[in-house]
Design goal:
The complex is a heterodimer. By secondary structure, chain A is an all-alpha fold. Chain A has ten helices and no strands. Classes of the chains: A mainly alpha, B mainly alpha.
């Protein structure tokens, strides 16, 4: 995927990155809005209790304590798109496909907490903002790393894998903080 | 060439750590100032961290 963002002149790469991030924001925001619409009718206390259970379950999975199901296709983005469409169009399509997270491969199980938080946010706007934040950051990270080194894209593609432990540490911290937030909110409400 | 590779390998961890840290810190700032409430702010922080974490995808 990063290979698509790294090809061509500066103008093409900027256009591709902009298309990638914009499409990711639009698709992720829409996904969050739809998720929030599904969970809108759940009462606040029940929502937070469910989110606390979800956060605890997937934090445990993140730490390798037990397995949990992860909604994902497990596929990579279709390579044929980069030969079929102009580069900015391909970048936009890849951005849209990657934005909801579950369209490809989910590297960290606790991503399900983000999906749950969006679905049970109780507000369409909040749901869209939560998923939109994920989509924009995902696309921005890909665009940044793809342009980090034009000479050898293979180095950049492996960058996240080589420093996976840093990302894992942050993901665990975020999941733990979210669980703490749920417990604090429950304590406040009950 | 060796210098370029060395410079790249020295910069690489800073790119990943910087990116992930910006995601985390901006998210946690949102937690304190989120118009949707602290829990949604925490969810946004988690989402931002996972967005950066997607770099660990194959």
């Amino acid at each position: 995927m990063a290979g698509t963002l790294v090809r061509g002149s500066t103008r093409i790469r900027v256009a591709g990155s902009a298309a990638h991030i914009s499409a990711a924001a639009a698709v992720a925001g829409t996904s969050g809005l739809l998720l929030a619409a599904v969970g809108m009718s759940v009462p606040l206390v029940v929502s937070i209790a469910l989110l606390a259970v979800l956060a605890a379950a997937y934090l445990g999975a993140e730490l390798g304590l037990w397995p949990m199901p992860i909604p994902q296709s497990g596929h990579q983005v279709p390579a044929s798109w980069r030969y079929r469409f102009p580069q900015p169009v391909t970048a936009a399509l890849y951005g849209g496909l990657l934005a909801p997270g579950i369209g490809t491969y989910v590297p960290f199980p606790s991503f399900v907490i983000v999906l749950g938080a969006s679905a049970l946010s109780g507000s369409l706007v909040a749901g869209a903002v939560i998923m939109g934040s994920y989509g924009v950051m995902r696309a921005f990270a890909a665009a940044l790393v793809a342009n980090f080194d034009r000479l050898s894209p293979r180095i950049d593609i492996a960058l996240g894998l080589r420093y996976r432990w840093v990302l894992k540490l942050l993901v665990v911290g975020a999941a733990a903080a979210y669980l703490g937030g749920c417990v604090a909110m429950l304590n406040h409400l009950l | 060439m060796t210098t370029v590779v060395l410079a790249r390998s020295v910069r690489a961890p800073f790119v990943v750590i910087g990116l992930a840290s910006v995601g985390a810190s901006s998210g946690f700032l949102l937690t304190a100032h989120s118009p949707f409430g602290a829990l949604t702010g925490l969810a946004i922080a988690t989402a931002l961290v996972h967005g950066a974490g997607s770099l660990a995808s194959p």
